[in-house]
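Quick one - first record:
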Amino acid sequence: MTKILMYSVRPDEQAAIDDWVAANHIEVDTNTVELGPKTVDLAKGYDGIVIQQHAAIPDDVVYQKLKAFGLKQLTLRITGFDIVNLEAATANGLAVTNVPAYSPRSVSELVLAQVMRLIRHLGEASAREAKDDYSWGGLEAAEIHNLTVGIIGAGKIGSAVARIFRALGSTVIVSDPVKRPELADTVSYVDLDTLLTTADIVTVHTPLDAITTHLIDADALKKMKPSAYLINAARGPIVDTGALIQALKDHVIAGAALDTIEGEAGIFGEDRSQTLVDNPELETLKAMPNVEITPHIGFYTDAAVKNMIDISLDDVKLILEGGHSPHQVN
């Protein structure tokens, strides 16, 4: 009987796993650890594996062992595949797949929530209320339909973001080398510099690679309006955290919302209330009333969790049956 092992499974994923097993009659075992050199041996005896984690897997030995165990694939039940050493995976005959669109609405709705909190100054209002200060000074808000939303990267998630803000009456501009005909009545395409200098809201929805690492750096932030807000619900290293903190301190931009941040591995998704969190930049950002921090939960809806399970396990099944997944990234 075919056997699949799923690494680092959360309790909320189990119901969807059970439903898939019942429908496909394939054995799926789970554990709660991430894949790495110390845990790769757990995959021995299985036909396929599925992972989701923040920690990178650069070590050649992991991929060599997976090949030695007879595995043909490495499936992620998340979108970001920058954690995988694609060169080592390919060299060892492993097809790497991801879930490119588990639920674009999930992330786009979080972006909307973050934007509304920022433009209505709810963080500042809450900070004042904690000190029994109920004054109005500085809390006058813009209305969303009067703002220009700039989207860097209009793939499936960026497109969903565009449609939500356009429906609310915002002007939506996009910087993306790929121009999608289906967005013709929703967005205007501009270059990155024009977007940065024009947008009241700049929201990032690109994959993480060598080009997009620190795409939003000190120079990019200086191009933004002093009244503008930055949103990152994509990948942490797309934004230079140190540069962002300095820009916020110097009032270069008005505020930011971050669902992901550099150095979040081992922090976001974990209960660290009883242990020291060694990320000074995160602590600095948390203390700012014009910054919204969420622990990488943009994806985290009931629909998205089910889709991540179903799509990833379907990919494993397809590959094991000799097929080619449309989600292969190497």
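second record:
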Amino acid sequence: MQATGETTETRAPSTFRRKLGAYVALTKPRVIELLLVVTAPTMILAQEGLPDLWLLIATLIGGAMSAGSAGAFNCYIDRDIDRVMKRTQGRPLVTGELSDREALVFAYGLGAASIVWLWVFTNWLAALLSLAAILLYVVFYSLILKRRTAQNIVWGGIAGCMPVLIGWAAVTEDLSWPPVILFLIIFLWTPPHYWPLSMKYKADYAAAGVPMLAVVRGRAQVGLQVILYAWATVACSLLLIPIAGMGLVYSTVAVVTGAWFIYETHRLYNLAIRHEQVSPMRVFHGSIVYLSLVFLAVGIDPLLPF
């Protein structure tokens, strides 16, 4: 008998839960959340109403599996720098909850399953776009760009734009200008979303040898770049109004939230150039709220008669 009275039967469920939790953490569920937030509204816009419920669910499941696979590959590739950065020291490959082999097998298996799932339950175009998203994030961003250039998050962010193309293709089996505009909104939004985070964890990235913009440039330069990309994001969001025939709800939300997003980036820059204490996480979290509200409006607008 164990001194604590613990038995094999009581330890087994606890071990299973820890292992399951580690696999879930490997997929970066918070990133998946945001990707699904943009997928469902895109499908509603593509359908110009509510799409078939099973198609919507199948696409979200396939998209979550695809994003989870990419996240798991990224954790495997970045396991060396994750051990150095305080922000990532709780990840499963750092804590030893999962072995490198377990993570790699899981990443390959989940990725393959996501492609098959989307091919069977949606269509071939959505499946191929999902494969492209995984390759872009794993090869283009994680292996090639991340440790070599300060522009890593700009071009590497393309992978995060793919869910809108996947969602549109799942409904229409083709691509047109509206999903391209939605793609560009996320592409331009990614730098002003992520660069404030890199300001917050500048020391972490510097210690890991990752040349994020905040590491190789001063706060004022980062703040200026955040402003420029925020303006471009909002301008692109307004293009959707004539191109997709958006109505009053989307137009109002795009203008109001866009003005607020731009204000927050200017505030960050002004504090930086005056050498005052900055609050980059305010812009980081605000950018998530901004994108969520814009895509919520994308999903609501087609359902209304005005």
